[in-house]
């Protein structure tokens, strides 16, 4: 490629002779007609080079979205309906960038999420909405992109990691690994994120993190991975400075030029930004106040007697006319109603109605075969692929913070050393030694129960917002998320209890057989995993940490009281003793006690030692606690059942919680 060609293609050479990309500026584009772009340079070859900058992937599937008489209500808890959008019509065609504007509360987001089939639960959408002849449904999650106003990411990941994982979760499973990598790299370059590809999205203290504009572009890149033909963007420029807003809108414009249909809610754009839109839909009080060519809006308002002062930005003026004026809401509502009524009988509305009517007519008359060929044959990734990549994501999150992990292990070791040192030399075969051994066992059980269980309570509530969003985007299902989350935690759930038990066991000098030691470590791992499962259940069931704690504290007390250490199991009153069947503290205490005392024959009995009745064999120790050696394997089975049971309950609770959203 010659130097001149590179310069025209948006690639220029820096002083070192290296190629650099520059972003396409609005001034580089001239809009000739709706959806048709030409470079300001006239050579057709140059146009092709601009296209290259925008992306060399095949043209997106053309998408026509049409909606007629769309009314949206929200259902209140008392069953009453509140109308948010009132009988709205519209059409968005391939290659067009549509601005959805209106004062705050006009119903822009409500309408857009209804069009995108992403309305929250409790919303009732009436009317007809069709994309390429198909009534909108769950397929919209696969065939359209939705850029939310507030972008959510796993903040610990880098830009590259995020896009790589999203490519695995979103793209067709038949896409080759090379093609996925190329797509990610292409988007990084197109959206000027290549230089930040190794930057964390929302790093830790003092680390470089993405700017607001870069975050928006990353959200945009995420939606573009599958190259959907239809894009919804909810206030993409909010929070950006004018230059970043201009860059982002230029990218949206470029997407439309490529053939995508882009619908965008936007707050009072500058004249420069407004020039990028082909169509304008003005909403007020849930109704359409104007829909048509952006250039025609001024004429329509003038025909109603609203003359935009020369010093005003027209869009600011339209919003001013359509907003409720504090103190004179009644008059404002009357004026808004009059604008909407006048638009409904205007020529622009009639033209729009005809277009919509024609589109629905074509839909009604197309045969099943045509409908089928219009639907995409997207094949989502296999469930195991999703699990693997989600596990990878959560492991990265954990590893990203090595200091926290090291601190946790150091803390465990410090507690283990402190506890072990208290018991050093006390675990002897004497009457006093019996209590000391039981004390050391309880420390192992308690340390692997309480703090891990409570540490789970914050995990799910913190991840709910991103989880809801990714579930609604159809990236994975609730069970896949839950299983992946648990697998990612698993290494820590083995290492931590093993280390703790190893240290306490050997410092305290508990029974020195490999069998007793090995099974005690195994039991401590099992105990910690049951505690994590129980914590997960409370976290998923109650959804917020304070509420979960309020229920978990009495529950864990009852488990502790029925563990067999504080009160003889046979002495517990009947009406409460059933709780011990849920108590993993009891099962593990019994199993670990059996490991320590089974077969022990020679416990020293000095009458002046404690004054208590003398226990000279392990069996006598076990029977003092109402434990029997036959219960060893049933205890392990009970722990496994509790582990599975709590996880199942947690999954059911999570599914219920995510379904309601
Ligand atoms: N779940 C809900 N319950 C009750 N009212 C709601 C609910 N969701 C939205 N609304 C109301 O519906 C109206 C339209 O909301 P919407 O978010 O669509 O407005 P918007 O035009 O996007 O506003 P903004 O520009 O401020 O984001 C608002 O008055 C809002 O208070």
Q: In short, what is this structure?
A:
With 661 residues, the protein is of the alpha/beta class. A 6-stranded mixed β-sheet has the order 10-11-12-7-13-14, with helices on both faces.
Description:
Helix 21 runs antiparallel to helix 22 and helix 21 (514-542) packs parallel to helix 27. With 661 residues, the protein is an alpha/beta fold. Helix content is 54%, strand content 12%. The longest helix has 31 residues, at 478-508. It is built from 27 helices and 14 strands. Residues 1-55 have low confidence and may be disordered. The strands form four sheets. The protein has a six-stranded mixed beta sheet with strand order 10-11-12-7-13-14, sandwiched between helices. It has a four-stranded antiparallel beta sheet with strand order 6-5-8-9, sandwiched between helices. The protein has a two-stranded antiparallel sheet with strand order 1-2. The chain has two domains: 65-154 and 226-366, Rossmann fold; 383-659, no CATH class. The structure holds adenosine-5'-triphosphate (ATP). The site of adenosine-5'-triphosphate has 11 residues, from strand 6 and helix 3. Its main location: membrane.
Query: Biggest sheet: strands, sense, closure?
Result: 6 strands, mixed
Radius of gyration: 33 Å
Distinct small-molecule ligands in the complex: adenosine-5'-triphosphate
Approximate shape: elongated
Structural class: alpha/beta
Number of domains: 2
Contiguous low-pLDDT stretches (5 residues minimum) are: 1-55
Distance between the termini: 53 Å
Per-chain topology:
Elements: H1 3-8, E1 11-13, E2 19-21, E3 29-33, E4 36-39, H2 44-54, E5 65-75, E6 81-92, E7 97-101, H3 108-115, E8 123-131, E9 134-135, H4 140-143, E10 144-147, H5 159-170, H6 177-190, H7 212-224, E11 230-234, H8 242-257, E12 261-265, H9 271-274, E13 279-284, E14 287-293, H10 296-303, H11 314-322, H12 329-344, H13 347-365, H14 368-374, H15 383-399, H16 402-423, H17 431-447, H18 450-455, H19 459-472, H20 478-508, H21 514-542, H22 545-561, H23 574-577, H24 584-597, H25 607-610, H26 618-624, H27 632-660
Parallel strand pairs: 7-12, 7-13, 10-11, 11-12
Antiparallel strand pairs: 1-2, 3-4, 5-6, 5-8, 8-9, 13-14
Helix pairs in contact: 5-6, 5-15, 15-20, 16-20, 17-24, 20-21, 21-22, 21-24, 21-27, 24-26, 24-27
The structure holds adenosine-5'-triphosphate.
């Amino acid at each position: 490629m010659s130097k001149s060609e590179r310069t025209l293609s948006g690639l220029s050479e820096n002083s070192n002779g290296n190629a650099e990309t520059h972003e396409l500026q609005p001034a580089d584009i001239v809009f000739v007609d709706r959806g048709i772009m030409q470079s300001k340079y006239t050579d057709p070859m140059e146009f092709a080079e601009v296209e290259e900058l925008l992306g060399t992937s095949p043209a997106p599937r053309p998408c026509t979205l049409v909606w007629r008489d769309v009314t949206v209500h929200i259902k209140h808890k008392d069953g009453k309906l509140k109308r948010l959008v009132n009988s709205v019509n519209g059409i968005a065609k391939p290659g067009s960038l549509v601005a959805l504007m209106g004062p705050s509360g006009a119903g822009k987001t409500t309408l857009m999420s209804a069009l995108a089939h992403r309305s929250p639960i409790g919303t009732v959408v009436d009317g007809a909405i069709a994309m390429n002849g198909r009534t909108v449904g769950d397929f919209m999650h696969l065939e359209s992109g939705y850029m939310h106003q507030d972008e959510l990411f796993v903040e610990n990941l880098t830009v590259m990691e995020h896009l790589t994982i999203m490519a695995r979760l979103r793209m067709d499973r038949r896409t080759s690994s090379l093609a996925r990598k190329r797509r990610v790299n292409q988007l990084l370059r197109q959206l000027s994120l290549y230089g930040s590809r190794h930057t964390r999205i929302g790093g830790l203290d003092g680390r470089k993190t993405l700017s607001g504009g870069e975050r928006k572009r990353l959200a945009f890149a995420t939606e573009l991975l599958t190259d959907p033909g239809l894009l919804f963007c909810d206030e993409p420029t909010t929070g950006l400075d004018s230059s970043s807003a201009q860059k982002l809108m230029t990218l949206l414009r470029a997407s439309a030029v490529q053939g995508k249909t882009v619908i965008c809610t936007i707050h009072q754009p500058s004249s420069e930004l407004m020039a990028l839109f082909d169509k304008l839909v003005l909403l007020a009080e849930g109704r359409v106040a104007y829909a048509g060519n952006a250039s025609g809006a001024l004429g329509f308002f003038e025909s109603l007697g609203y003359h935009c002062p020369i010093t005003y930005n027209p869009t600011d003026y339209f919003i001013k006319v359509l907003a409720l004026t504090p103190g004179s809401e009644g008059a404002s509502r009357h004026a808004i109603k009059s604008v909407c009524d006048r638009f409904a009988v205007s020529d622009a509305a009639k033209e729009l109605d005809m277009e919509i009517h024609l589109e629905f007519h074509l839909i009604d008359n197309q045969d099943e075969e045509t409908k089928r060929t219009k639907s995409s044959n997207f094949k989502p990734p296999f469930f195991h692929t999703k699990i693997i990549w989600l596990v990878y994501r959560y492991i990265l999150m954990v590893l990203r913070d090595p200091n926290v992990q090291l601190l946790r292990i150091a803390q465990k070791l410090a507690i283990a050393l402190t506890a072990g040192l208290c018991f050093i030399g006390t675990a002897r075969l004497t009457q006093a030694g019996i209590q000391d051994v039981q004390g050391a066992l309880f420390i192992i059980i308690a340390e692997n129960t309480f703090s891990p269980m409570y540490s789970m309570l914050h995990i799910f509530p913190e991840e709910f917002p991103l989880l809801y969003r990714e579930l609604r985007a159809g990236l994975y299902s609730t069970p896949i998320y839950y299983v992946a989350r648990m697998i990612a935690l698993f290494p820590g759930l083995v290492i931590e209890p093993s280390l703790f038990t190893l240290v306490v066991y050997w410092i305290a000098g508990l029974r020195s057989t490999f069998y007793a030691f090995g099974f005690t470590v195994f039991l401590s791992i099992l105990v910690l995993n049951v505690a994590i499962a129980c914590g997960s259940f409370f976290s998923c069931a109650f959804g917020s940490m304070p509420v979960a704690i309020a229920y978990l504290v009495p529950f864990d007390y009852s488990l502790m009281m029925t563990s067999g250490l504080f009160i003889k199991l046979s002495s517990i009153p009947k009406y409460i003793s059933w709780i011990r069947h849920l108590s993993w503290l009891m099962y593990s205490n019994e199993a670990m006690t059996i490991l320590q005392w089974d077969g022990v024959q020679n416990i020293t009995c000095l009458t002046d030692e404690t004054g208590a009745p003398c226990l000279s064999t392990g069996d006598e120790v076990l029977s003092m606690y109402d434990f029997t050696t036959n219960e060893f394997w049933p205890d392990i089975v009970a722990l496994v059942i509790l582990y599975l049971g709590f996880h199942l309950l947690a999954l059911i609770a999570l599914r219920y919680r995510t379904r309601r959203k």
